[in-house]
C-alpha cells in the first residue's frame, strides 16, 4: 500500500502551504535550486523584498498593515548563473492560529524539501520589539539548527546615516534580546519609480546589490546531502 505524504492528505492542517508543497512534489525539487524563505511581521515589507530581489512586481504588496500574502508562494530567479527559489511567507501578527500554521508549514517545508536560508525581515523604524523576538524564536524553533537565519532590515530609505550604519547602532540591542543572526542586510524596498529622487534611487540600487551579496555569501556553490522523500541536497556550511 502506498501512503501519501502528510501534506497531500485531505485532512492536512497546512492549508497555507499545501499548494506550494504539491507543486514542489510534482517538480524536480531535488535539483540544485536553493530554497530561501522570506518572513516577518505583517507590514515589514517582506513581499517588497521579494520584488527587490527578483526585479519584478509579481509579489503583491500593500501600503498598510493588512496581509497581502495569504499562503506560501515561490518565485524563481537566477543569480550569477545559479538557480534560487524565493519563498514568500504569510506574515506573523494576524492571529495566533496563523502563527501556529506558519511554524508547522516551515517545519514541513524544511523536512520535505529543505530550507537553505531564512530572511527574517525587521522594520528599521521603531516597532514592537517583543513581537520581533517572538517571531525570531518561532522561526528558530521551526527550522533545522543548521539553517542560517539572516536579518533583512527594511524601511531605511530616509535613514540619516548610511543604511548599514543602522546595524552598527542596533546589533548589540538585538543580541541582548537573544536574536542572533548569521548575517544581515540593511535596505530600502522602494522601487526606482517610487523613489523619484537621485539619492533614493541610489539607495535602491545599493539595496539590490546588498541583497545579491547576502544571497551569494550564504548559499554556497553546491547543495549536498539528502533530506526528505525527494532527496533535496543541502549546501555546505562554513
What does this structure look like?
By secondary structure, the protein is an alpha/beta fold. It has one domain: P-loop containing nucleotide triphosphate hydrolases (Rossmann fold, 3-Layer(aba) Sandwich), CATH 3.40.50.300. 37% of the residues lie in helices and 18% in strands. The chain has seven helices and eight strands. A six-stranded mixed beta sheet has the order 2-3-1-4-5-6, with helices on both faces. The chain has a two-stranded antiparallel sheet with strand order 7-8. Strand 5 (149-154), helix 5 and strand 6 (184-186) form a beta-alpha-beta unit. Helix 1 (15-25) runs parallel beside helix 3 (96-112) and helix 3 runs parallel beside helix 4 (129-142). The longest helix has 21 residues, at 198-218. The chain is globular. The relative contact order is 0.17. The model is unreliable at 1-12 and 225-238 (pLDDT under 50).
Overall tally of domains:
1
Basic shape: globular
Distance between the termini: 42 Å
Compute the number of helices: 7
Biggest β-sheet: strands ordered side by side in the sheet: 2-3-1-4-5-6
